[in-house]
Amino acid sequence: MRPIPGSPTRIKICGLTREVDVDAAVAAGADALGFVLYPRSARAVTAERAGELARRLPPFVTPVLLFVNATDEEVARGLAAVPQALLQFHGDETPGDCDRVGRPYLRAARMAPGFDLLNFASLYPRASGLLLDAHVDGYGGSGKAFDWSLIPANVPSPVVLSGGLNPANVIDGVMHVRPWAVDVSTGVEEAKGIKDAGLMRRFCEAVREADARIADALT
Ligand SMILES: O=C(O)c1ccccc1N[C@@H]1O[C@H](COP(=O)(O)O)[C@@H](O)[C@H]1O
């Protein structure tokens, strides 16, 4: 599903752990901020900490809770702390695992040659969107990009382009893939979980530049 022509590409910045970074991401123009509730991640926060950080968000900026193979209790604890959250399932969760929570969610797909994204999408018809990340050892947040030509044109759900994006390559990514949204973590960091305000601002500016070029091409 391609975005409505002329609509802005939404921006998610993931892996925030500090108030100062939350405020800078909002100031840069992020539409959604991700909090990693995967204890093995170097960017992990507790549900309670995610709640503290998410309470800083103004209206119309969406908190996203990222899980990797979490138990139902862990997901429930996250939602108790951040009730307005969109969920992001980034592990081996089955459609049943995702659907039984009964909340809107993004399902991450690990892109690699031979991966059948259309079949994967057909298994998750209730997903609000498919977040496309590089297939890496571990589950994500690696800063590695994948070959965008692996993305079929007719993905039936909104596509969130992710994996190794940064201020230098996101214009190409948006123009090539025309995703509904982009998601970045490593590409706007000075260290894992520590964001760089300048990089976040430049990333959002680059997305707006891509949108402007697409709009120009339409006129
Ligand atoms: O950020 C993490 O530590 C993480 C851990 C486990 C699964 C996903 C994780 N992050 C997500 O990975 C993608 C790509 O991130 P990057 O920009 O390549 O660093 C992104 O969706 C993050 O939300």
Tally of separate domains: 1
Q: Considering DSSP H and I runs of 4 or more, what fraction of the residues is helical?
A: 25-40%
Find the CATH superfamily. Aldolase class I
Neighbour order of strands in the largest sheet: 1-2-3-4-5-6-7-8
What's the CATH C level? Alpha Beta
Word description of this protein:
The protein contains seven helices and ten strands. With 219 residues, the chain is of the alpha/beta class. The chain has a single domain (10-112, 121-218), classed as TIM Barrel, CATH 3.20.20. The chain has an eight-stranded parallel barrel, surrounded by five helices. β5, α5 (117-123) and β6 (129-134) form a beta-alpha-beta unit. The mean pLDDT is 96. The protein binds the ligand O=C(O)c1ccccc1N[C@@H]1O[C@H](COP(=O)(O)O)[C@@H](O)[C@H]1O.
Topology:
Blueprint: E1 10-14, H1 19-28, E2 32-36, H2 47-54, E3 62-67, H3 72-81, E4 86-89, H4 95-99, E5 105-111, H5 117-123, E6 129-134, E7 159-161, H6 170-177, E8 181-184, E9 189-191, E10 194-195, H7 197-218
Parallel strand pairs: 1-2, 1-8, 2-3, 3-4, 4-5, 5-6, 6-7, 7-8
Antiparallel strand pairs: 9-10
The protein binds ligand LGQLAAA5.
Ligand LGQLAAA5 is lined by residues 14-15, 34, 36, 38, 41, 43, 66, 68, 90, 131, 133, 139-143, 162-165, 183-187.
